[in-house]
Amino acid sequence: MNSRHIAAKALYKVLKDNVSLTLALDELLGGESKKDSAFIQALCFGVMRWYFYLEALLGVLTRKPIKDLDIKILALIGLYQIKFMRVKPHAAVSETVSAVRKKSWARPLLNALLRRYLREQEALDQQINTLDLPIREAHPVWMVEMLVEQWPDQAHAILKANNQQPPMTIRVNPKYYTQTQYQAVLASQAINATMVSHCSSALVLEKPIAVERLPGFSEGHSFVQDSAAQLAVTVLDLQPGQRVLDVCAAPGGKTTHILETEPALAAVVALDIDANRLSRVKENLERLALDAELVRGDASRPEDWWDGVLFDRILLDAPCSATGVVRRHPDIKWLRQPKDIAAIVELQQKIMCAIWALLKPGGRLVYATCSVLQQENEEQVVQFLASQEDADSVAITAAWGQARRCGRQILTGDDGMDGFFYAVIVKQ
User: Fold this and answer.
1) Which of 44, 248, 320, 370 is catalytic?
2) Is-catalytic flag, 370?
3) For residue 418, what pLDDT band results from cuts at 50, 70 and 90?
């Protein structure tokens, strides 16, 4: 089947039905070869990454908006190939036009507008680059306005980082290798990797590769995880004999890292509300030969699942806007809406207050998000501290991120990392 046609079907699910791109691709890529699947994914992620730019470009090329979403998506796919991919121009045009099925009226339209872009690309690109910042950097207006307001000096850098291909970062399992040792093992397989100075478990690959190529991956020697997410264990301050709760644990990256970092813990409980996502935690635990208690439950209602035994450490990787990982999930630009933020903030506060009761006196709660929005991060923690008399914030002293009123913020692209926030709260 025509790869552009499959890509268009996936993008239709995102743009029309608000399905995540990852889920849409999972449903459609079952029978494709690895090569075709990689090309389809590149098309879909690229179109979503540059959607607002490409849509403006399409508006310049057409006298009337294309109302048919199927055809509009194919036009965006064609423009993306010409503008951003190394596809031969004639193939970009002909294969995209061939992806039209029953709506034969659209073939001459697509052919004409794509060929016009080929002829006038330089002038048209210059025209788009004179438009407002949200179009130039391909972000929704509300997101740009919020970033500029909250991070006036860093907003442009965040927007540009969001549009970059993210690096492939791996976590080295200390049971088998040190960071330096595994770097040498990779080098012996002609896989170049750079050490991360502020994270002793992380290596950044020079080029992304299939996980099957990572030496010992199936035996649990490494785990794919951004170095910002790997920092969670450094702020948890794990000690032998502790009982640890990982809230919103799926897909299990932080759960497995907790167990790798301190093998002598008394217990680790991994909680998630979604049974399918919790099965991912189980798969990762099994691959890494680790053991945790898996609990399906609503974090805001611990009375439904908690056994009454308090925890020494709680990691709350809170549901959030995911604005710190837009470069990995560019469909966030489309799927997330400004009205969502207030609801997310309310849910975060509800979970924090509910989970707080499960922490021992003297215990430590680490609040984490993959967000760069202050209302989900430092403002959230300030509000929580004001509502809890027995809660104190502990400053995080580190070489990464920047200190805020409460916690520490990593902005997308800082030292090559995803956007992340951490705060440490102790119970008096």
Assistant:
1) 370
2) yes
3) very high
